[in-house]
Specification:
75 residues; alpha+beta; 11% helix; three-stranded antiparallel β-sheet; single chain
Amino acid sequence: MGQTVKVGAGGTEKKGNGVAEKVVIGDAELWHGDCREVLPLLPHVALVLTDPPYGIGIDGQKQSTNRNPKHNRKA
């Protein structure tokens, strides 16, 4: 895969528990961590793609898991 680096506050490499984990794959970087801690470590970027927590629906409400589409509609 790629090179893994633990990164601490201020963008310094850290051994052990870092704030975030950065994996370098070719010329790309994959960051794993809390976006509120990772974003200040990054230079200016044009796009940040995040994956919200599973089960969060529209307006931050808990998403229904019922597979019946009529049941999942808002009134």
